Amino acid sequence: MIRTRPVTAVIWDYDGTLVDTRAKNWRITRDIVQHFTGTDPDTIEALSSLDGYTIALHHYHDWRHLYMTEFGMSEKTLSEAGRLWTEYQLSDDTLAPIYAGIESALGKLRNLPHGIVSMNSKNNIERSLAKKSLLDRFEFVIGYEEVSEARQKPAPDGLLMCLDQLTGMAPGHVAYVGDHQIDIECVRNANKALAADGCDIYVFAIGAAYGIGAEFGAWPKEPDYTAQCPDDIVSIVRR
């Protein structure tokens, strides 16, 4: 049972949680795979349609497993692909809409500091949110550039870094909202690290089940709470 303590911050994943980036990431993944492998994306089931990409994305632990298993890319190629990700993101103008209700939820929780921990590019995240006049709602953004390849989610490094910036490691509860099992594992790993350091902080996971493909019931590890819409996040944090 999670004991009652004040909520001191809300931290968000980006893709599939704040913004529906499936179409944009699908297009970019098609370009990256064709660039590195020379394979026509239409001949790959996981890339031939947006629905196929969505299913594959939630089937694998993270994008690295997806790229290696479905697209046959090597560890070395993955590192090169990661470096190209920002360039491709910034040059692609595919619409990535904010999920309905997110802006309202951020407004209702304006009394708390908010941050983002994502495996997307910090530059891309900040540019996208600035275009939607939402960047000022977030005090700190952690993209993949801030964390070494070996310590990306589910390792807790990015989450702990954001937690420190937002709260100064003050005692209390912190919400982390994510749409993928890797987010849930990241929260569990963060709590282990916090407990080992004697910190009186507990991070609770809110599963963003309003995004397409987020099927928490099929996951081996489920979140502490599940939000069927962004307003549920407000209720959970206030409760």
Polypeptide structure, described:
This protein is of the alpha/beta class and 239 residues long. It folds into 2 domains: 7-19 and 98-238, 3-Layer(aba) Sandwich (Rossmann fold), CATH 3.40.50.1000; 22-91. The protein contains 10 helices and 6 strands, in the order E-H-H-H-H-H-H-E-H-E-H-E-H-E-E-H. It has helices at 22-37, 45-48, 50-59, 63-71, 75-91, 102-108, 122-131, 157-167, 181-196, 230-238; strands at 7-12, 114-117, 140-142, 172-178, 201-208, 225-227. Helix 1 (22-37) packs across helix 5 and helix 6 (102-108) packs parallel to helix 10 (230-238). It is globular, with a radius of gyration of 17 Å. The mean pLDDT is 90.
Give the topology.
Elements: E1 7-12, H1 22-37, H2 45-48, H3 50-59, H4 63-71, H5 75-91, H6 102-108, E2 114-117, H7 122-131, E3 140-142, H8 157-167, E4 172-178, H9 181-196, E5 201-208, E6 225-227, H10 230-238
Parallel strand pairs: 1-2, 1-4, 2-3, 4-5, 5-6
Helix pairs in contact: 1-5, 6-10
Please give the domain count: 2
The best one-word shape is globular
Helical proportion? 40-55%
Total helix count? 10
Order of helices and strands: EHHHHHHEHEHEHEEH
- Sheet-strand content, in percent, reads 5-15%
Radius of gyration: 17 Å
Biggest sheet strand order reads 3-2-1-4-5-6
**Tally of strands:** 6
CATH architecture level-2 label of the largest domain? 3-Layer(aba) Sandwich
How is the biggest beta sheet arranged?
6 strands, parallel
What top-tier CATH class of the largest domain fits best?
Alpha Beta
Return the average pLDDT rounded to an integer: 90
